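Most newcomers find our protein records easier to grasp once they have seen one. Sequence and backbone structure share a record, each on its own labelled line. Nothing more is needed to start thinking about how sequence determines fold. As an example, a complete record with its sequence and its structure tokens follows.
=====
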Amino acid sequence: MALVTFAAFTDIVAYSIAVPVLPNLSRRLGASPTMIGLLFASFGVTLLTVSMPMGAVSDRIGRKPPMVGGLMALSASTLLFAFADGLPWLFAARLVQGAADAITWVVGFALLADLYGPSERGRVTGIVMSGASFAFMIGPSIGGWLYQIGGIRLPFLTVAAFAFIATIAFILYESPPRREAHEPVPLLAVLTVPSIAACAAAVVILSSTMSMLEPILAIFLGTTLAISPARIGMLFGISAVVTATLHPFVGRMADQMGARRLTLVGLCASAATLALLGQTWSYASAVPFFMLQAMAGALVITPSLAYMGEATSEAGIGSFGVSYGLYNVAWGAGLLGGPAVGGFLFERMGLSRLLIVWAPALLVAALLLARVQSDQSPAKETV
């Protein structure tokens, strides 16, 4: 658990540390704003294409070799960033970083699902997600600070050192045997399990919602309410603190209440708080409304991760790698589609109407999840 948490922390720091650094580096190398946007987007290309294949590979050869390879790729990508002298090298580094991210998260959570039972997965998942949220919170600050004191290379060299330490730790790690022995199964067999498919659909909708909110809320606060960038940044920082604090507690709640039930509660709460956030009229109102939205989101993320493992186990499927690969693909699809759709609708509807119209999508996700049964006997027969 500690090793996976450290790997996830390092991966998110590597991702977020680039936020204040890459635009400056790209402009130095002659990139246009469009090219910089493509550079950031290229991360999602390999994230989506690598997640499920590497999950399947880890089901067959074990978790340790892919984790070691993924962390080595993360270290290599950050070194590429540090010494890149042209845009092609920056794109290569970003693509490798996306692949490394996919491996770290998919195989890491599959490893945890192998070693922890349903009564413990929520607690473990909450700890990992708390570490990731903390990394999101401090990554850009670390990147900017290291850039100021040591130039463009120091932030990336620092992350490369973290990734190297994580690589050595996983090389030395000897995994205990799985709690249950299972044979890997084809992707189609995983996709035909109703609970897994419903969980993936809920993840797409949640990811779309969260990624849609980030740009449009910042635009609304900055243009409509004339709030300064520093105060907007503080708002998102408060949200990160809330989620980092809540994830371990939510994980324990998922173990006690059931991951599926808590995910349903979180989806319904997210729909209600999203509509409430649309009524923001000042900075003083935005802070509590956005905190409530962040709390509701935490009630979905951690339980849904635990539920994906639970649904896979209940179906008698041993392919935790494939199921968490599907989870990662669903999350990545939301990250790609949410901001585009949200920006398009925001221009035409404004914040309040957009969020009121968007909120029912979360209720639809809750309905899909509510309709699946805990008993997965039909899926067992399919497998």
Summary: Confidence is low (pLDDT under 50) at residues 374-383. The chain is about 85% helix and 0% strand. The first helix runs from residue 2 to 16.
